[in-house]
Amino acid sequence: MVFQSSTYGKVLVLDGVIQLTERDECAYQEMITHLPLCSIPNPKKVLVIGGGDGGVLREVARHSSIEKIDICEIDNMVVEVSKQFFPEVAVGFNDPRVTLRIGDGVAFLKAAPEGTYDAVIVDSSDPIGPAQELFEKPFFQSVARALRPGGVMCTQAESIWLHMDIIEDIVSNCRQIFKGSVNYAWTTVPTYPSGMIGFMLCSTEGPLVDFKHPVNPIDEKESQKFIQQLSVCRRLQKGRLVPKKIEKIFKSSKELMKSGIRLYWIGHLSMDHGISQWLNVL
């Protein structure tokens, strides 16, 4: 289902669960993509499991070193709906490096030759029904086998506020399988349950991967050119959410207020959230 909301623009809902909105989708797409790809030098071959809306493809395409992007999405309707109603998200499908396969991601990975990919990004729905397999040990074993030595995986890993039992199982499985780094990261996405979502970041045995220290930054000029071409998240480029309780602090500083960033004063945000968001801008 797709509907128009008063605050978040168009909203995509699958099986009664919000998948993305026009306003905050970039928070998820950017994190699940750039955390792994910025952590290894010169990635060339990337596999996306799920991600039928095209947002992860859009972000992967920002890396000029990428030569091949495979995506396996089980539901072709998601792809078609995204192209029709969310063209700024689905624009990733237009990249000539992309090969789309409609089918079961679990089966696709089992058939993938060993050591094929530099990175595997698993943009899955919640572990219910067919998606349950994407959170289990055999699937992670297939991912590790398909990665080159020192290759990386990033997978959607639920919310620490709601799903600690699921996260504990994911962490346990990944620590048994991935002999490089195993890390948990998270980001805020206002329209997701609890307002946040987590990611598992793992690497295979080989060259050391430190997810906390990027080694492959996106070229700033290329990035800005890409954003201008695709009109990605223009609302969020022009504004930042800031907690109401620190409004006086910001307005008393001419330096902070002259940046041209539009501030949205929100009463229920924590001070930590607002300051962190602002520091990211600076």
UniProtKB/TrEMBL annotation:
The lineage of its organism: Eukaryota, Viridiplantae, Streptophyta, Embryophyta, Tracheophyta. Its EC number is 2.5.1.16. It is an enzyme of class 2 (transferase). PROSITE patterns: PABS_1, PABS_2. InterPro entries: PABS, PABS_CS, SAM-dependent_MTases_sf, Spermi_synthase, Spermidine_synt_N, Spermidine_synt_N_sf. It catalyses: S-adenosyl 3-(methylsulfanyl)propylamine + putrescine = S-methyl-5'-thioadenosine + spermidine + H(+). NCBIfam families: PRK00811.1, speE. This is spermidine synthase. The keyword NAD does not apply. Residues 1-204 form the PABS domain. It comes from the Eukaryota. One of its GO terms (cellular component) is cytosol. Signal peptide: none annotated. One of its GO terms (molecular function) is spermidine synthase activity. Pathway: Amine and polyamine biosynthesis; spermidine biosynthesis; spermidine from putrescine: step 1/1. Keywords: Polyamine biosynthesis, Transferase. The active site is at 123 (proton acceptor). One of its GO terms (biological process) is spermidine biosynthetic process. Belongs to the spermidine/spermine synthase family.
